[in-house]
Amino acid sequence: MIALTHFETDAPDFESRAGTALAALAARPGYRRGSLGRSTDDTRAWVLLTEWEDVGSYRRALGNYEVKLHATPLLAEARDLPGGFEALLDAAPGGVVVARASDREPGW
């Protein structure tokens, strides 16, 4: 599961707060990796990317006390855009593209 959260800010402490939030998320079971990126075209545009074993891991992480304390206030500043995505194709550098079955129930 991929969680992608968009922000629009020029707050001087944003990168530091995002690092604290990312560390809180990274400490949770099911966390695979995460990154904070800033747009090369608009310095106010940021994205927080995290990858999880499954949607349940991500949802349980959001309920953790440390995450509520350090990540939830930052996530509350996010732009209102879809943020949770299934990873359906993977490829390592120079590797073969591997398809995964959807976790969604049929008919969604």
UniProtKB/TrEMBL annotation:
Domain ABM: start-end pairs: 7-64
Stored InterPro entries: ABM_dom (IPR007138), Dimeric_a/b-barrel (IPR011008)
GO molecular function: monooxygenase activity
Record key words, sorted: Monooxygenase, Oxidoreductase
Oxidoreductase as UniProt keyword: yes
Protein name: Antibiotic biosynthesis monooxygenase
